[in-house]
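FIELD: query
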Amino acid sequence: MTYVVVENCIKCKYMDCVEVCPVDCFYEGENMLVIHPDECIDCGVCEPECPAEAIKPDTESGLDKWLELNAEYAKSWPNITAKKDAPGDAKEFDGKPDKFEKFFSPNPGEGD
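FIELD: result
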């Protein structure tokens, strides 16, 4: 089992999860984070820290697409180990539907 970042992180990109991760398995894209599935130790401390509830265990049904996306982008996006401020408009995007189709960016973030 591993944890995955799902659609609601897009354009919210809260980083509370990053500062509690004991193995630094988060990677930063331009407008979301992902978890490297081979580095995640399944401790689960990140899940309750996410204000957008965008971190899920991969045992939940329907998350195959997100597990693949996390694995793919964790290979090319920079590692992030320190919490940064969320985007100024994050609350406006929290819970909006169809964020992947409308807003996902494959571009990397800045990392540490």
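FIELD: remark
Residues 5 and 13 are 10 Å apart (CA to CA).
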